[in-house]
Design brief:
The complex is a heterodimer of chains A (266) and B (163). Chain A has 266 residues and is of the alpha+beta class. Chain A is built from eleven helices and 14 strands. Chain A folds into three domains: 46 residues, Uridine Diphospho-n-acetylenolpyruvylglucosamine Reductase, domain 2, CATH 3.30.43; 112 residues, 2-Layer Sandwich (Uridine Diphospho-n-acetylenolpyruvylglucosamine Reductase, domain 3), CATH 3.30.465; 96 residues, CO dehydrogenase flavoprotein, C-terminal domain (Enolase-like, domain 1, 2-Layer Sandwich), CATH 3.30.390.50. In chain A, 32% of the residues lie in helices and 24% in strands. In chain A, the strands form four sheets. Chain A has a five-stranded antiparallel sheet. Chain A has a four-stranded antiparallel sheet with strand order 11-12-13-14, sandwiched between helices. In chain A, strand 13 and strand 14 form a beta hairpin. In chain B, helix 2 packs across helix 3. Chain B is 30% helix and 49% strand. Chain B has 163 residues and is an alpha+beta fold. Chain B is globular and about 45 Å long. The chains are: A alpha+beta (266), B alpha+beta (163). Bound molecules: flavin-adenine dinucleotide. The site of flavin-adenine dinucleotide has 32 residues of chain A, from strand 2, helix 2 and helix 7. Flavin-adenine dinucleotide binds next to strand 2, helix 2 and helix 7 of chain A.
Chain lengths: 266, 163
């Protein structure tokens, strides 16, 4: 690791100012992606601005069907939250499946969505739940937030502060984890939102990162059952292909995970 | 550490191909393909491109893949030129500890309905640490970079044509 300067911000405005004053600085939350990259010397930010201790970014609040999760909430906090469990148990399941206990106690939801790794779990839930992502500058709908592999609508100096969504009437997440890293080879989050409309978020598999599966959404909106998506097609041409699995394998996995998720949601 | 799927030199290779229809005549597209200012705009992350000879350039490229950010110094060369229909563009760069990156693309221009069809076949290689750590994402990222080069090029070429 190259030398870097660590600073801790106490509020969102200061964090942005601190970053602006650096040469080539970066925000850091749980460090579960950024620190390993720096250890490999594949990134060398001059400064790290820690945003985890900003009060406005902490905690989880559930008010009726409104769920609001601070960007600095760790995966373990989400997995173990009774409030989230009442509103959307599928999100607790998802958070509990991320990496290992170390990663879950350090990594944050804000860091995960800002990073938008094509195999990360949260992005699938965010688009399936039609979550609103609030930043230091604005609120962005999940559909517009995740733009491409590792790319989001965030500007360099923009901080994710919280995530809000309406509790779905039912939802579930099914993931086929890579046996070594636990990242998703394919992960599908299905949710039934307002007026019975279904939303299906797919991660781990798409060559442009997380995406919604329109055909499955239409089928599930009419009939929420495994049988309803039996004949849906997953486009191989839009799948990732790498040494862990080729496009055809992933396309099949997406279908299998979607069926499992629908069955689990009941 | 060698990850399965990498070859014995710790390189990760991939083939990428595609085509675009450009609304501009072939000689014009050819001219742009040889214009260093245009090339600089098309090479993703290119910070500088200096011409050493008519067909060779010195480049500095900052490659950003997710949390990784590495700067590469390298050479870009235009080879096998057949005016105004085909050439190869190849580049090779070293990114210090991050490893190396190289890319080679055969570009063909075919006249079609007053426009020009650009067909490319590229292969990209990443080696060293960046490939080891990133093997999970190297292929998709390289495909994206090659696409970005040609998408930007075609955008520029079509724009220029309409002015
Ligand atoms: C062994 C291992 C296994 C893992 N397995 C999984 C898995 O199965 N599923 C999964 O989804 N993830 C997995 N992860 C990733 C993990 O969830 C990370 O915690 C997460 O991707 C990044 O969150 P972080 O808080 O650690 O972010 P950091 O590493 O601190 O930051 C990541 C990036 O986001 C930026 N950033 C951080 N916070 C903010 C913010 N609030 N606003 C704007 N930008 C910000 C940083 O500048 C940096 O670019 C794994 C990681 C490891 C090391």
């Amino acid at each position: 690791m190259y030398e870097t300067k660590y600073q801790r911000a106490s509020n969102v405005e200061d964090a942005a100012k601190m970053l602006a004053a650096t040469d080539d600085g970066k925000f850091i939350s749980g460090g579960q992606t950024l620190i390993p990259t720096m250890k490999q010397r594949l990134a060398a930010p001059s400064d790290l601005i820690d945003v985890r201790n900003i009060d406005a970014m902490k905690g989880i609040a559930v008010d009726g069907s409104n769920v609001s999760i601070g960007a600095a909430a760790t995966h373990a906090e989400v997995a173990n939250s009774n409030d989230v469990h009442k509103a959307c148990p599928a999100l607790c399941d998802l958070a509990g499946m991320i990496g290992d206990p170390h990663v879950r106690h350090m990594g944050t939801i804000g860091g995960s969505i800002a990073n938008n790794d094509p195999a990360a779990d949260y992005p699938a839930a965010m688009i399936a739940l039609n979550a609103q992502i609030t930043t230091s500058k604005r609120t962005i709908g999940a559909d517009d937030f995740f733009t491409d592999l590792f790319e989001t609508a965030l500007e360099e100096d923009e901080i994710v502060t919280s995530i809000t969504f309406q509790a779905p009437s039912k939802a579930a997440y099914a993931k086929f984890p890579n046996p070594a890293s636990r990242y998703a080879m394919a992960g599908v989050f299905v949710a039934q939102v307002e007026d019975g409309a279904a939303r299906v978020g797919v991660t781990g598999a798409g060559s442009s990162g997380v995406f919604r599966h329109g055909e499955m959404e239409a089928a599930l909106s009419k009939d929420w059952s495994e049988a309803a998506i039996k004949n849906c097609k997953v486009d191989e041409a839009a799948m990732l292909s790498d040494l862990h699995g080729n496009a055809a394998y992933r396309a099949n996995l997406v279908k299998v995970m979607a069926k499992r998720a629908v069955a689990a949601a009941g | 550490m060698i990850i399965p799927g990498l070859n014995c030199d710790n390189e990760y290779c991939m083939d990428i191909s595609g085509e675009h229809l450009i609304e501009a005549d072939r000689e014009h597209v050819w001219k742009l393909l040889n214009d260093p200012d245009v090339l600089k705009k098309c090479i993703p992350g290119c910070e500088s491109l200096e011409q050493n000879s008519p067909d060779t350039f010195r480049a500095k490229v900052v490659l950003k893949i997710g949390p990784m950010k590495a700067s590469f110094n390298g050479d870009v060369e235009l080879k096998d030129k057949v005016f105004p229909s085909s050439y190869r563009i190849s580049g090779e760069g070293k990114g210090g500890i991050a490893g190396f990156a190289s890319g080679d693309a055969a570009v063909n221009l075919v006249e079609e309905n007053g426009g020009t069809r650009l067909v490319y076949e590229a292969d990209a290689k990443l080696g060293g640490k960046i490939a080891q750590l990133g093997s999970r994402l190297v292929q998709s990222s390289s495909t994206k970079l090659a696409k970005q080069f040609f998408d930007t090029f075609c955008e520029i070429a079509s724009q220029e044509a309409t002015v």
